[in-house]
Amino acid sequence: MTQNLESAPYQSLRNEIQNLCRNFPNQYWRELDQTRSYPYEFVQTLTEAGYLSALIPTQYGGLGLNITAASIILEEIHRSGGHSAACHAQMYTMGALLKHGSETQKQRYLPEIAAGKLRLQAFSITEPEAGSDTPNIRTFAQREGDSYIVTGHKNWTSRIAQSDLLMLLARTTARENVTERTQGISLFLIDLRDIRAQQPNTLEVTPVRTMFNYATNQVRYHGMRIPADSLIGAEGQGFRYVIDGWNAERILLAAECVGDGYWFVERAVDYANTCVRFGAPIGKNQGVQFPIAHAYAQIRAADAIRYQACNLFERNAPCGAEANMAKLLASEASWAAANACLDTHGGNGFVAEYDIERKFRETRMYQIAPINNNLILAYVANHVLKLPKSY
Ligand SMILES: Cc1cc2nc3c(=O)[nH]c(=O)nc-3n(C[C@H](O)[C@H](O)[C@H](O)COP(=O)(O)OP(=O)(O)OC[C@H]3O[C@@H](n4cnc5c(N)ncnc54)[C@H](O)[C@@H]3O)c2cc1C
């Protein structure tokens, strides 16, 4: 697909996702939110329709779509009032496997992922002592014959209980023994089914309740033995492979924020037009309409950079600046829209049945994760504006 956004393939993709999402109305997401439950039915439906394999090439049974199309899928899920946190990792982890995985790994896993028989939903990077400073991770994979033995602690590994496969970042050479701190880190693709069947005690998963419905966990690896052929690419190069995937991740999450933003604006406009106070719709007041209009303008601007980033990405051109700025601006825009929408609804904004407070909690995350906006600003300052690095 080319990047003519009005073209029939993109429009029909949007329509298909909108139709699919109609079966999962806000009430569905609200009930799951209240019980902090995973949206199994939604993810199953999306998988069966093939959309979670959007970025898997057709030769492996995927849809072979480009990043623009993948981002439209996530945007529309959010624009419908849903949340794709339950499944988006399958899209953005794909780059590392496609670009750096061996042909054997691709043949072993991709067709089954595309067929919906295997789930690749978990990505285990962040650690309590490292946070955003990824090269400071301590989880260690020690080579022992045909295996690696993994020991360590990750404080945010989402969806591991809902995944068959796990991507794990671990040190294979101690920090003290490498000259460059980003070296000596390796990426692994691990079959959790084997671990659960043969050595369940080596994998300790503790669910973490968060501000919104997110299936995330603390994970401890207690000497977990994995086959040496779980390694993706070359040993010690994993940090670079992860960085390679960051642009796609930024773009896809920017699209989720854009979807949230449009959802908030649509809700705010509807309410502003229908709620009558002092004999007129509240939307007649500039104090009500200006924040909505402002947020809308912010969303449109973020959306434009998101498509610029997609376009560069698809041409294999450098897109770090655009992908990062898209995520920064989109997360700020969705937050501005969330606040405008909540204010427009007055007290009703706090009532669960309106779904505003749920989406408000959900969209707040994007300023912090998967990368916090301070580090994006640092990226723009250092890499685009060539200002000195502050850390
Ligand atoms: C709901 C949720 C799900 C997640 N799921 C996953 C997952 O599946 N897998 C995974 O690996 N991770 C996951 N994460 C972790 C996420 O990627 C991190 O939260 C994120 O990278 C930020 O790291 P941190 O929380 O450790 O913040 P820290 O790095 O501890 O930063 C704390 C604060 O300090 C600021 N700060 C830090 N360094 C600098 C600096 N140099 N300059 C300016 N400011 C700075 C930050 O802006 C932030 O405000 C998840 C997080 C959340 C919230």
What does this structure look like?
There is one protein chain. The chain is built from 13 helices and 10 strands. The protein is of the alpha+beta class and 391 residues long. The protein has 3 domains: 8-114, Acyl-CoA dehydrogenase/oxidase, N-terminal domain (Butyryl-Coa Dehydrogenase, subunit A, domain 1); 120-237, Butyryl-CoA Dehydrogenase, subunit A, domain 2 (Beta Barrel), CATH 2.40.110.10; 240-384, Butyryl-CoA Dehydrogenase, subunit A, domain 3. The chain has a 4-stranded mixed sheet with strand order 1-4-5-8. Helix 6 (94-100) packs antiparallel against helix 9 (238-274) and helix 9 (238-274) packs antiparallel against helix 10. The longest helix is centred in the middle third of the chain and has 37 residues, at 238-274. The radius of gyration is 21 Å and the shape is globular. The model has no long low-confidence stretch (mean pLDDT 97). It binds flavin-adenine dinucleotide. Flavin-adenine dinucleotide is lined by residues 123-126, 131-132, 156-158, 210, 214, 216, 365, 368-372, 374, 378, 391.
Structural class: alpha+beta
Count of discrete domains? 3
The CATH homologous superfamily of the largest domain is called Butyryl-CoA Dehydrogenase, subunit A, domain 3
The oligomeric state is single chain
- Put simply, the count of helices is 13
CATH topology call of the largest domain: Butyryl-CoA Dehydrogenase, subunit A, domain 3
Rg from C-alpha positions? 21 Å
CATH architecture of the largest domain: Up-down Bundle
Net shape: globular
User: How many angstroms does the end-to-end distance come to?
Assistant: 41 Å
